[in-house]
Amino acid sequence: MHLRYNYRLYPSATQQGDLAKAFGCARVVYNDALATREAARANGLPYVKDADLSKALTEAKKAPERAWLGDVSSVVLQQALADLNTAYRNFFASVSGKRKGAKVGPPRFRSRKDNRQSIRLARNGFSLRSNRKLHIAKVGELKVAWSRELPSAPSSVTIIKDASGRYFASFVVQVDQKPLPEIDSEIGIDLGLIAFAVMSDGKTIDNPRFLRRAERKLRKAQQALSRKEKGSKNRAKARIRVAKAHARVADTRRDWAHKNSTQIIRENQAVYVEDLNVKGLARTRLAKSIQDAGWGMFTRMLEEKAARYGRTFVKVNRWFPSTQMCSICGAVGGKKPLSIREWTCTCGVTHDRDLNAAINILAAGRAERLNACGGDVRRDHGHAVADETGTTKRGESHAVEDLRLNRRGRQEEFEPDEPDCD
Question: How many whole angstroms separate alpha carbon 169 and alpha carbon 145?
Fold first, then answer.
């Protein structure tokens, strides 16, 4: 398994200039190669191959108008071409349907005004010195804040300058999977805004609302930026202050998500969450709160850490009526506005909206896991009277029918004979 380990860099003023030159040269090479392929496509010519772009780069370095490309490491320039080739491969795979996930657009030109700049170096372009500094070809030895040791020798490194002017080194390393000891605990998680997460065992995680808490400082910094003259040095300084305020919020949210996701993975053998349409919800009137919560980042961390530590992670279909279904009798009571936090089922049980949804997500996730492993997920419902509460209606989805679990007595049907899917 390949992972990235990020560390803060502290280059000197001279090294910052050398890195800026490397960022610019990599951008120019990338844009020149992209323009070459776009021109060939517009003229109806064949697709320009990777080897031809590499030869064109070698010739460009000999030309007087591109002689300054020789001031930076050739590894940086070749990796810029490799990044373009990867972008094209991802685009073609997405168009043809070979790539899963969201659609990937064609490569776009890079701008010198981009707030985030980066270069990538292969193993022959950098080295770790005995004085614990990172040596970059034609830049020198960079001071690194080693917050932890690298688990293995890195295969590549990406030097990043973010919008707030900070420098980072992102190492790609090979990490062995370390399965945690198996435990019996499984959890269903219902994500929300009032409470960030409500779990099927009754535990809750409060919503920290990092952006909301920092809005006052952000508003003042943004107002100061808007009053500065465009193109002035004071405006550049004000922009850095705004970027640092946003970076502080993002870093705090990421650190919080890492800690909570790690704790959940360590304490549970299987984790089940709802497959929320975060992009769609981010276009509603709750957009700011949803983006501030960071559901997508949190579920992605759960999935990655589950794969690394030998845990099970399952996403339940977003159309599963986890909020509408009674976790005791299985009756579906219809849609409920967000203002309804508690509701009473026709069987007489009063449910907390989020806790009931988390219990249903746990049951649905177990059923999907058993079904994926070849287990029998269909229960014998017996014969019901026509007007009996919870009777299955004609045309109702079999998936909903099969997932009607009685938490007080019926969940044991899944537990003793559960197959080992790990």
Answer: 10
Q: How many Cα atoms within 13 Å fall on the side-chain side of residue 34?
A: 19
Q: Which two tokens stand for residue 186?
A: 């499984």
The CA distances from residue 2 to 113, 161, 164, 371, in Å, are 31, 23, 28, 30
Q: Say how far apart CA 370 and CA 402 lie, in whole Å.
A: 12
H or E element, residue 256: helix 233-267
- The residues carrying an active-site annotation are 190, 274, 354
Q: Name the pairing type of β-strands 270-274 and 186-191.
A: parallel
> Positive or negative CA dihedral for 325, 330, 334, 337?
negative
Q: Is the Cα torsion angle 234, 239, 240, 242 positive or negative in sign?
A: positive
Ramachandran area for residue 216 (φ above 0: left; ψ -120 to 50: alpha; else beta): alpha
Give the sheet arrangement for strand 167-174, strand by strand. 117-122, 156-161, 167-174, 2-10, 140-145, 133-136, 126-128
Is-above-0.90 flag for pTM? no
SS3 content of the chain, % helix, strand, coil (to 5): 45, 20, 40
Q: Check: CB of residue 112 under 8 Å from CB of residue 31.
A: no
Instruction: Report CA torsion sign: 22, 28, 34, 36.
Output: negative
* Residue entry with tokens 């079904």: 371
Fill in the DSSP letter of residue 101: S
Quickly list H helices, 13-73. 13-42, 50-62
User: What span, in angstroms and rounded, lies between the C-alpha atoms of 81 and 388?
Assistant: 68
**53-84 residue pLDDT tens:** 999 999 999 999 999 999 999 999 999 999 99
Q: Which residues of the chain have pLDDT under 70?
A: 372-422
Distances (CA, A) of 175 to 1, 34, 309, 312: 5, 34, 11, 19
Question: 235-291, pLDDT tens digit by residue?
Answer: 999 999 999 999 999 999 999 999 999 999 999 999 999 988 888 888 889 899 999
